Amino acid sequence: RIRRSLLRLAYLFALGYRTALTGTVSKARFVDKSAPKVPKTTPHSATMGDSAYSFSLTTFSRTGKLLQIEYALTAVANGRPSLGICARDGVVLATDKKLSSSLVDVESVRKVEGVGEAAGGGCGMVYSGVGPDYRVLVRNARKAAQTYYRQYREPKPISQLVKSTASLMQEYTQSGGVRPFGVSLLLAGLDADGTPRLYQVDPSGAYFGWKATAIGRNYTSAKAFLE
Questions:
Q1: Please, how many CA atoms are within 13 Å of residue 93, restricted to the half-sphere of its CB?
Q2: 197: enclosing H helix or E strand
Q3: Residue 164: exposed, middle, or buried by beta-carbon count in 10 A (0-12, 13-18, 19+)?
Q4: Residue 77 is inside which H or E element, if any?
Q5: In angstroms, rounded to a whole number, what is the distance separating the alpha carbons of residues 135 and 122?
Q6: SS3 221
Q7: What is the mean pLDDT of the chain?
């Protein structure tokens, strides 16, 4: 044991003598404890996660997401549930219309709105999410339906009405100074060939045709029940 200890001391002494001659210091074995400790810093780019992009609508995060759209979908998921079922001869829209107080006039709160009745056709819209945003989209859809009727003297097909509404919602995902619409829509109506159709439009501007679907709170359970 003594011989082994002496060999270790000789090796360390020789190592220290060699580093002194070459002018280098071994960081692993020779540390100046009197020197102040400098905290390790991580580059800002390495610590910046998705939250750094949450206030920008037009900037993608590192994971390829627009976080404001994700937040809009969260607002939809927290809204009252709505569902639609497409049959051979029509489409059924239903929604939960619970009011915050019994003093509120029920007739003044409308969640299912008609679009295009004055133009000789008509489709229905229902939403989940932020109510004021829904009113803006309903007003725009009614103007689009009326403009189409004045030009062609026939009701606007539901597929074209869905496309124009989705285009408006998509514009609000790539413009500065605005935010996405905090609603998802279910639109029901007749297509150009008279076939009943049911569509869903999301805050990103994406739209899908469905046989039956649900949006809003507990939409996954509602979809599982419909399936």
A1: 22
A2: strand 196-201
A3: middle
A4: helix 67-77
A5: 17
A6: helix
A7: 80
What is the CB-side half-sphere exposure of residue 143 using CA atoms within 13 A? 9
Which tens digits make up the pLDDT trace of 17-41? 444 444 444 444 444 455 555 555 4
Element (H, E) at 173: none
Report the amino acid identity of residue 212. Answer: A
50 has a pLDDT exceeding 80: no
Confidence at residue 56, expressed as pLDDT on a 0 to 100 scale: 65
High-pLDDT (> 90) share of the chain, %? 47
Strand partners, 124: 114, 188
Q: What is the pLDDT of residue 19?
A: 46
Dihedrals phi, psi of 74, to nearest 5 degrees: -65, -40
Nearest to 129 by CA among 41, 215, 12, 4: 215
HSE value, Cβ hemisphere, 13 Å, CA-based, for 10: 6
